[in-house]
Amino acid sequence: MKLITEGNINSYYLQTLCMLFFPRAKFSNTETITTDTPVAIVKVSEDDSTAYAEASVTMGERTVLKYHSEAFCAAEPRKNTVSTAASKALFFALCEFCKYNPPWGILTGVRPTKLAIDRISEGMTKEQVVKSLRADYLLYPKKAILAADIARFESKIIKNYTDKDCSLYISIPFCPSRCAYCSFVSYTTKKLLSLIPEYLSAMKEEIRHTAALIKELGMNLSTIYVGGGTPSTLDEKQLEDLLSLVDSCFDTKALQEYTYEAGRADTINAEKLRICRDHNVTRVSVNPQSLCDAVLENVGRKHTVKQFYDAYELAAASGINHINTDLIIGLPGDNFGTYSSTIEKIVELAPDNITAHTFAAKKSSELTVAGSNVFTDDYRDLAKCVDYTQIITKNAGYIPYYMYRQKNSAGNLENVGFCKKGTECIYNILMMEEVHTIFAVGAGAVTKFTRDKGEFIERVFNPKYPYEYLAQNREEEYKKLSEKAHAFFD
Q1: Tens-place pLDDT, residues 178-233
Q2: What counts of helices (H) and strands (E) characterise the chain?
Q3: Is 92 helix (H, G, I), strand (E, B) or coil?
Q4: In this structure, are residues 444 and 464 in contact, taking their beta carbons and an 8 Å threshold?
Q5: What is the helix, strand, coil percentage profile of the chain, to 5?
Q6: Contacts of 185 (CB under 8 A, 6+ apart)
Q7: For a tag site, which of 216, 371, 413, 421 has the least CB within 10 Å?
Q8: How far is CA 344 from CA 245, 291, 297, 312, 340, in A?
Q9: How far apart are CA 384 and CA 50, in angstroms?
Q10: CA neighbor of 138 nearest in space, from 70, 195, 228, 209
Q11: 32: left (phi over 0), alpha (psi -120 to 50) or beta
């Protein structure tokens, strides 16, 4: 695709808008234009009071031209107003050209609820929030209402936490095999899985240092989240050793929430669940992604639907308080018929939490690297699946409690967590809205310091890969982290 701009415009953002309509688009200044090449031209100008934009979309002999203007206001930087005018003009042109209107309008960020929370903090009612989101970002009414409802729910949780509260994320970036859609930093070969003992030894030392730092800062640990990869890749002894170490560093009985993202059904057994329960884990994830064997096989998921049911039954009998199940909407080979059957069966199981993710094409996933066509030019079926999820969960008594999106998510659609009343995952809310300090240990982990409900944020990145993590001078890294933390909070 060819994007041509004239004036002071953020071309990258306009490219993201184009990709809502042309998901396989690539942009190059040297691209040769043919009759099959979509060409978008966006021009902006301004006077003292108004930003003006015109946008055209052309392919072959067909052209759509649209105009839009935005008045400048004192509360908004002029460049933002110019960008909004350009974005809306291009969006209107693309909608008419492709005969498709994306439900999230021109909003492409990963945290739609953050905008709604900001408006709530300014004193807006739900109706005012919905009206503002629709006017500013061209959202469908149902998406604006969803964002407002989740923001109102999250705001009630967020207000209970201060700058002295924090959480801990523990990264287990290993899987027994890699799903074709996955781009997580997770390791699957026999040679790389052999790093686990050394990795755990190094990470346990980091946990000890992190516990000491939290104590030095006078902070209160609210939640722990063990994620991956697939944390249940660890064998029973490794799991026992890790959770015992966590117990020795923190009062896990006093935690508000302790999640172990067990993940894949083929890695879960009764003994691992018993170990989690005995070490005060309160929430466990058992993630089928789909309840269609053909879809699971198509994406390289190395377990069957029966294995999921068996693992879920073990989790339900384990004595762990809450169970979450993750689903992915729009996996290659899936459709409304197979997906609707999946969500209906999950609702019948009645887990406390259901997280429904929209499929996102990751650059480093096997599907993308292999050049597979994982996109669709028509997101109506996918949007139907998303809508059906929200309808059936609501009818079953679930509440949408947190939401985010991923880069390159199909149709720019959302990921939503649903919960039964009083069973929300607190960590998910605090982490996603960036209002809470999270100490993170292990490869690929990102520590995030926050103050004043996210007004001030500083991130500290661990090495991405386990072998890089193991090669680091950890003592130096602990010292740097401590200095940054004290400088941020003192």
Answers
A1: 666 665 555 556 677 889 999 999 999 999 999 999 999 999 999 999 998 899 99
A2: 17, 15
A3: helix
A4: yes
A5: 45, 20, 35
A6: 173, 229, 443, 444, 464, 465
A7: 371
A8: 40, 10, 21, 16, 6
A9: 38
A10: 70
A11: beta
Dihedral through CA 401, CA 148, CA 331, CA 229, nearest 10? Answer: -40
To the question of pTM greater than 0.85 for the whole model, the response is yes
Q: How confident is the model at residue 263 (pLDDT cuts 50, 70, 90)?
A: confident
Query: Where does residue 379 rank: exposed (0-12), middle (13-18), buried (19+ CB within 10 A)?
Result: buried
* Both tokens assigned to 86: 């350009």
What kind of fold does domain 160-476 have according to CATH? pyruvate-formate lyase- activating enzyme (3.80.30)
Own/partner contacts of 462-465, CB < 8 Å, gap of 24 or more, are 462/171, 464/185, 465/185
Tell which residue, 170, 118, 189, 181, has the closest CA to residue 148.
Answer: 118
Q: Which CATH superfamily is domain 1-100 in?
A: Ribosome hibernation promotion factor-like (3.30.160.100)
Question: Could you write out the DSSP letters of every residue in 347-378?
Answer: HHH--SEEEEEEPB--TTSHHHHTT-----S-
- Residue 259 is inside which H or E element, if any? strand 257-263
* Mean pLDDT value across the chain: 92
For 386-406, write each residue's pLDDT tens digit.
Answer: 999 999 999 999 999 999 998
Tell me: pLDDT of 109 over 90: no
* Tokens 């994620």, residue located: 227
pLDDT at 445: 95
Residue-range domain boundaries for the chain? 1-100, 102-154, 160-476
